[in-house]
Structures are given as structure tokens and as C-alpha cells.
Specification:
The chain has seven helices and 14 strands. It has 260 residues and is α/β, with parallel strands linked by helices. It has one domain (10-258): Ribonuclease Z/Hydroxyacylglutathione hydrolase-like (Metallo-beta-lactamase, Chain A), CATH 3.60.15. The strands form two sheets. It has a seven-stranded mixed β-sheet with strand order 6-5-4-3-2-1-14. It has a seven-stranded mixed β-sheet with strand order 7-8-9-10-11-12-13. The two termini are 19 Å apart. The structure holds zinc ion (2 copies). One zinc ion binds at residues 69, 71, 149, 171. One zinc ion is lined by residues 69, 71, 149, 171.
């Protein structure tokens, strides 16, 4: 995969458009975000590392992992990632930053009690427990907002050098913060876990994802995080019933570069 991006450009790659329930072609949640000077994972569900290999991104390239919450379909590959980074091939690599809501240090400490092989060796691990707000990371402005799903759920938005932007809902139920997060964004990657007629509390449907995208004025809506109930359903049509912008149905390994 070509990695050179100009200042302000972003590349978004879907590593997992599925959920906790296995579907043959969809791994659980994982996304790759690349800018000119940063390579990030947003969520790191089981299978994320394998998908990274499929798109030819070495683990040595990862600068940071942003976790939306602690459900296993969003973070189970964190342990395998930290284990792999102990390999001699990554000795002296650049620091790895992990960002999530409160509870991250406890999560990693607990992981290390059963898997001591997740503790960093020969590189620095920086743990960031985030309060809602903005921060800078490399050439990105990062916005984290609390999302209605668990008490420790964050949605993320990345703005590259005041140019292209992408927002990730993570698992989400209806909330004003989602609209704020996706305001005018180029790509809104949004949970659409169950079809409109089979809504489950704590999750959005395509129609609800569309309604939030419409209110936010998002330029493109990527529906993702599909439970098996969505297979065979025209989820794009459901989103179009509430949203006038471009609708994309995420597939694993879908990759789009946002040029200036
Ligand atoms: Zn969840
Ligand atoms: Zn989930």
C-alpha cells in the first residue's frame, strides 16, 4: 500500500466492518487512519492484526491506537499487538501511544496479570486516559467526545492539518455528541449495527445513522459494524431515507484516500 500522503490528506481503511458475532467476510471493529505523519488504529478488535498484514502495514508503523470502548469486539487484539511488539524485530521502535477513556491503565494492568507478555520491552508504551476534548497528535487534531453506549465510550474525530477529516462513532446510541463529532466532516464512519426494523438498545440502525449524519452535515456516511441481521438487507437505502449525502456500505479492506 502506498503510504505517502500530502499534508492535509487522509487515508481510511476498514480492517473490520463486523461485530462480536462472526460473519465470514467481516472481522470485528478495526480501522486504519493514515496521514502524512501518523499511522493510527481506531479500535483493535480480533483479526485487526491479520487485516493489517493483508494491507501490508507492518506493526512497526503504528504510532497510536484509539479505543472507542472496552467491549472485546473493539479491543481484543490489543494483547496480541503488545505481545508482537516485544519481538526482537521491533527492538527500539518508536513509542506506541494508546488512547481510551478512563479505565485504560486498569485494563492494561489487568491484561498483564494474565498475559505478562503484554508489558512493553525495548520500546515505550504511553497510556493516555482521555477526558472529552481536543488534543494534537502528529499532524492531526483529535477530538474525543462521550458517546451513549457504555460509561466509557468515546467517539473520535481526526482533522488533518485543517483540511480533510474523518469521525468514528464506535458503538453508539442516539446522542447529540455524535452530531457534534461529525459536524461537516468529510467521512463519518458510523455504527449501523441492526436494520431499522430490528433495533437493539445501545446501537444505531442505518436510518438513525443517516439522521445523525444529516443533522451534522457530514459529506459522506460510511455504514459499518454490521451484526448478521444486516446481511441481505439494503442498509444503504435505509440510510438514504434520512440522509441526502453519499452513503458507503463498509466492507473489510475498503480503503479510500481523501485528496485535498
Ligand atoms: Zn460495544
Ligand atoms: Zn461493538
Amino acid at each position: 500500500m502506498a503510504t505517502e500522503l500530502a499534508t492535509g490528506e487522509l487515508r481510511i481503511t476498514v480492517l473490520g466492518s463486523g461485530t462480536a458475532i462472526p460473519v465470514a467476510d467481516r472481522f470485528p471493529a478495526g480501522y486504519l487512519v493514515q496521514s502524512r505523519s501518523a499511522t493510527l488504529l481506531v479500535d483493535c478488535g480480533p483479526g485487526t492484526l491479520r487485516r493489517l498484514a493483508q494491507v501490508d502495514v507492518d506493526l512497526g508503523a503504528i504510532d497510536a491506537v484509539f479505543l472507542t470502548h472496552y467491549h472485546t469486539d473493539h479491543c481484543a487484539d490489543v494483547g496480541p499487538l503488545l505481545f508482537a511488539l516485544r519481538s526482537p524485530r521491533y527492538r527500539g521502535r518508536k513509542p506506541l501511544h494508546v488512547f481510551a477513556a478512563t479505565g485504560l491503565q486498569r485494563f492494561l494492568d489487568t491484561l498483564a496479570t494474565v498475559w505478562p507478555w503484554t508489558l512493553p520491552r525495548d520500546y515505550e508504551l504511553h497510556v493516555h486516559e482521555l477526558a472529552p476534548g481536543e488534543l494534537s497528535f502528529a499532524d492531526l487534531k483529535v477530538t474525543a467526545l462521550p458517546i451513549r453506549h457504555t460509561a466509557q465510550s468515546l467517539g473520535y474525530r481526526f482533522d488533518a492539518a485543517s483540511s480533510k477529516s474523518v469521525a468514528f462513532s464506535g458503538d453508539a446510541d442516539e446522542c447529540a455528541e455524535l452530531v457534534e463529532l461529525a459536524r461537516g466532516v468529510d467521512v463519518f464512519v458510523c455504527d449501523a449495527a441492526f436494520p431499522d426494523a430490528a433495533r437493539v438498545e445501545g446501537h444505531l440502525t442505518p436510518g438513525l445513522a443517516g439522521a445523525h449524519a444529516e443533522r451534522a452535515g457530514a459529506k459522506s456516511l460510511w455504514l459499518t459494524h454490521f451484526y448478521p441481521e444486516c446481511e441481505g438487507v439494503d442498509v444503504a437505502a435505509q440510510a438514504r431515507s434520512t440522509y441526502r449525502g453519499e452513503v458507503v456500505v463498509a466492507q473489510d479492506l475498503l480503503s479510500v484516500t481523501l485528496h485535498k
